[in-house]
Specification:
- The chain is of the alpha+beta class and 782 residues long.
- Helices cover 28% and strands 23% of the residues.
- It contains 21 helices and 34 strands.
- Strands 1-2-3-5-6-7-8-17-12-11-10-15 form a twelve-stranded antiparallel β-sheet. Strands 18-29-30-34-31-32 form a six-stranded mixed β-sheet, covered by helices on one side. Strands 4-9-16-13-14 form a five-stranded antiparallel β-sheet, with no helix packed on it.
- Helix 12 packs antiparallel against helix 15.
- It starts with 7 loop residues before the first helix and ends in a 10-residue tail after the last strand.
Length: 782
């Protein structure tokens, strides 16, 4: 969720509230194909084992997560992306007054009125606006005034907009021009259909960037004979500005001869001028008499030559419909690795859309010829693997990476190699939130430790585990020779916590470090290094040193041992990051037994955790679109953010699986919907989506381990095609009432623990649930 400014809701929120609440027929309510009455009816009956009988790409609703109020905005984008695609072509939109920072991190907001244009670089579901470069917009003739985005933007209507996996379409209302988008990993395919009477033209704006970003330099050349435009832009977005920005190279090719064409700079047109450079630049192309114009766009982060090679390899010689078919087939093959029965159409739409969103990032960053630009800003060759970037690891380590490690270990192996190369080619340390070609340093903890450990422990091979451990220990202890202090210096081990007066963020950092150290310990133990394992076993319990027994929360503490005397459990203190004491109370999933010890009794811990969810349930009932509270983060359970999203599974280790089952199913039913406002917050590069793909089949990972907690499945049956075999989950008697597990069998044998290990499913397995309307005695604490 990170980085959305804390006061934005008070400054900008009322316009979004008005857009969402003034009209009962609001487009937000129609962002999916949800039939509320049918859904409610289906939820009151025992599941009839619903089976979708069409293409899975058509079941995906890319509009889920494209709207939201305040901190519930999903930041998804509806345009085209190939699986993990480098290029993501999507409309960037705005309201009459422009685009708010907080609701346009992906460029698109479902409540907007205007399409500014179609840009080719985006990130899915993040909390900071980034990219939105190389803008194409079909228009009705060209004038100097149309170099202004407020002039060339066009109104759109959701009644004339559609999308599924691999395809996007919208009609621009001001001109009647129909825009269709598809493409591949490095390239986009545009089809513009111009109505009679429109002067068929296309505008290229090289200065385009999402709000708070800018293009600081650019260069463009037009080759009218080849019907091409090519060049580069230097993007200095909100995120990449942390390492001086990034260059993006492009080639644009049209299928129709130009009539009048030219460039512009600072709003001044230069007809037939073939080159332009600097800032506030662009170009225009007119196609007299053409009713349909196609444009293909290739990009690269290495060179124009590579952008052309990417484009030629992927789209040259293909018609739009052929490219669309290839895109749909790529998505269909990936989505078809999961087969569902049961629930209803909305449930399955939410599931496959979550799967679609989970495969947006990390980003494929390797050109067709194997070249990529590394963290040293130099060009490297990826031999026999694909280099990836854009890892939102403070978010994704918890759910997304364990999912990828489970279902596609080969791709995950390349991702782990990429993280190690970033450290080698960069600052000799693992990144926190690597983006494009640099470190952003965003968020707390050293989450790459968990990601690498989780990969190895879930069976991902092919990356250098010894090198990974070396970098992990560098994170843990630092290195005097380099001046890097690891967890914050010697005082971390001396105090047994990160002191607030020395470092800040002390609760968030310490709790994250404990999870990081747990993962390092598990990793070291698997490699046979018992000495490191034992050290990490001690360190992972440092969180206890921030426990204030009178308050029964983790509280900020100075180096002299003094706790914050003005503590308020609902206040977002500086020593928490994106949360409060209630939400950080549960950030120890690796040591529930240790947390119970702090509470003094299992019942005390269970009661407080249950209260946490009960109070959130009460909050949810009043957080309606017309209530200003809806703009603010929840005080209690916050599914739209990361620190507590595992909390419902912690009841398992306290001997209350019934409460895990109750609250997991409540979250599935209440925090996900088949509509534009269908996510509880930023998807954070697939984090919330992967929570759903796991939890709805009855499993959930403890990241940094080989464990999969057992929850409460939503579907009658799920078959997940893993590289080693098929994992088949069945749930007898499952329904919206029958959420409680009566028994579980794995390959015909009773399951007597609250989790499976990864090796139990890697080669395929059959997991059989029997469900009921009342808590069963399976694993219940006696």
């Amino acid at each position: 969720m990170y980085r959305i400014l804390g006061l934005f809701v008070l400054i900008f929120g009322l316009s979004a509230l008005s857009a969402c609440s003034d009209d009962s027929e609001s487009p937000v309510d129609n962002g999916g194909d949800s039939d509320t009455e049918a859904q409610e009816e289906s939820e009151t009956e025992t599941s009839s084992a619903y089976v979708w009988d069409g293409r899975l790409v058509d079941l995906v609703n890319p509009f889920i997560g494209t709207a939201g109020i305040g901190f519930t905005v999903g930041s998804a984008l509806p345009g085209h992306s190939a699986p993990f695609g480098m290029l993501k072509v999507s409309p960037d939109t705005e309201k009459e007054s422009g685009a708010e920072q907080w609701s346009h991190c992906g460029g698109y907001d479902y409540t907007d009125l205007y399409v500014k244009g179609f840009t080719h670089t985006h990130l899915h579901g993040i909390g900071i606006p980034e990219y939105g470069n190389i803008l194409l917009q079909p228009i009705d003739g060209m004038t100097a005034e149309k170099t202004d985005p407020k002039v060339y933007r066009q109104a759109f209507d959701h009644e004339d907009e559609e999308a599924h996996a691999g395809y996007y379409r919208v009609k621009l209302q001001d001109t009647g021009i129909d825009v269709e988008l598809t493409g591949s990993v490095h390239s986009a395919y545009h089809r513009y259909t111009f109505p009679s009477g429109v002067d068929s033209s296309v505008l290229l704006d090289l200065s385009a960037a999402l709000i708070d970003g800018e293009v600081t330099d650019s260069e463009l050349t037009i080759d009218a004979t080849a019907k091409e435009a090519y060049g580069w832009v230097h993007n200095l977005g909100d995120f990449v500005s942390r390492f001086d920005g990034v260059g993006i190279y492009f080639v644009i090719r049209f299928d129709t001869d130009f009539g009048t064409w030219g460039t512009w700079k600072n709003g001044v047109l230069a007809e037939s001028q073939a080159t332009v450079e600097g800032t506030n630049t662009g170009a225009y192309f007119q196609f007299p008499g053409a009713s349909v114009v196609h444009a293909t766009v290739g990009i690269s982060f290495v060179s124009v030559e590579n952008a052309r090679l990417n484009l030629d390899t992927e789209l040259k010689g293909l018609s739009f419909d052929e490219a669309l078919q290839a895109s749909e087939e790529a998505w269909e093959e990936l989505l078809d690795q999961v087969h569902l029965e049961g629930g209803n159409e909305d449930d399955q739409t939410i599931y496959y859309t979550a799967l679609y969103h989970a495969y947006q990032m990390p980003t494929h960053f390797t050109d067709i010829n194997g070249e990529y630009r590394g963290f040293d800003k130099e060009v490297h060759q990826a031999d026999g693997f694909t280099y990836y970037t854009d890892f939102s690891m403070w978010d994704t380590y918890r759910t997304l990476h364990p999912w990828l490690h489970t279902v596609m270990p080969d791709k995950a192996s390349d991702m782990m190699k990429s993280l190690l190369l970033m450290a080698e080619q960069g600052e000799k340390k693992l990144p926190k939130w690597p983006l494009a070609i640099g470190y952003t340093g965003c968020m707390v903890g050293t989450s790459a430790d968990v990601v690498l450990a989780d990969a190895h422990l879930r069976g991902v091979t092919g990356f250098d585990t010894d090198k990974a451990l070396t970098f992990m220990l560098y994170d843990a202890y630092g290195n005097e020779d380099t001046g890097y202090h690891g967890r914050g210096g010697e005082d971390y081990d001396e105090n047994g916590y990160r002191a607030e007066d020395l470092h800040g963020d002390c609760v968030a950092q310490t709790l994250e470090y404990c999870w990081d150290d747990f993962a390092i310990g598990q990793f070291a133990q698997s490699l046979g290094d018992n000495e490191i394992y034992q050290k990490m076993e001690e360190r992972r319990k440092y969180y206890k040193n921030l426990w204030q027994s009178d308050e029964q929360f983790f509280i900020g503490r100075d180096a002299d041992g003094t706790f914050d005397p003005d503590f308020d459990p609902l206040e977002g203190e500086d020593y928490y990051v994106e949360g409060n004491a209630w939400q950080y109370l549960w950030l120890v999933p690796h040591d529930v037994a240790g947390l119970i010890e702090l509470f003094g009794a299992t019942e005390a811990m269970v009661n407080k955790l249950d209260t946490f969810f009960l109070l959130h349930e009460e909050e949810t009932a009043i957080r309606t679109p017309d209530n200003p509270l809806s703009f603010l983060p929840p005080d209690y359970y916050w599914h739209g953010n990361e620190p507590d999203i595992h909390a419902a599974y912690m009841f398992l280790d306290a001997g209350r699986p019934d409460l895990t089952q109750k609250w997991v199913r409540w979250i599935l039913a209440n925090e996900y919907r088949n509509e534009a406002m269908g996510l509880a917050g930023n998807d954070d590069c697939g984090t919330l989506s992967a929570w759903y793909t796991f939890s709805s089949i009855g499993l959930f990972p403890l990241a940094g381990s080989n464990r999969l907690w057992i929850g409460s499945p939503l579907f009658d049956k799920a078959e997940i095609e893993l590289p080693g075999g098929t994992l088949t989950m069945t749930a007898q008697n499952v329904s919206s009432e029958n959420v409680y597990v009566q028994s579980v069998k794995l390959n015909g044998e009773d399951v007597t623990g609250n989790y499976l290990t990864q090796d139990q499913i890697t080669s395929g397995a059959t997991l059989e649930f029997v469900m009921g309307a009342e808590p069963g005695d399976w694993l219940m604490l006696q």
